[in-house]
Amino acid sequence: xxxPETGQPLPRAADAHATADKWQxxxxxxxxxxxxxxxxxxxxxxxxxGIWQAIAAAVLDAPVSTVRDRSPHGVVCSVxxxxxxxxxxxxxxxxxxxxxxxxxxxxxxxxxSP
Length: 114
Hints:
The chain is of the alpha+beta class. It has one domain. The chain has helices at residues 20-27, 34-41, 48-58; strands spanning 64-71, 74-85, 88-98, 106-112. The chain has a 4-stranded antiparallel beta sheet. The chain starts with 19 loop residues before the first helix and ends with a strand.
């Protein structure tokens, strides 16, 4: 199966995954995007599973907006989604890495964006 293409759904989105260290060390952490998540959705590090479930569901049909970093190390692409968490709705930017053309998407980062 090919790498992602702009305007098309994220390949193998049903197999998307994220690592716990990414959530605790960057996405919901203070040096990362933690303040943005807290301000927009009133969530914190303990909410990572619910946020992940919302992101994983939203990217199933969302189109890829950019593809970059085509290199021997794989591809990184962006997908914007609308999430509703704690009765609050906002746009969330997500980035995904594919190690190779056969790999599944791994969440690189996610943050609420204007």
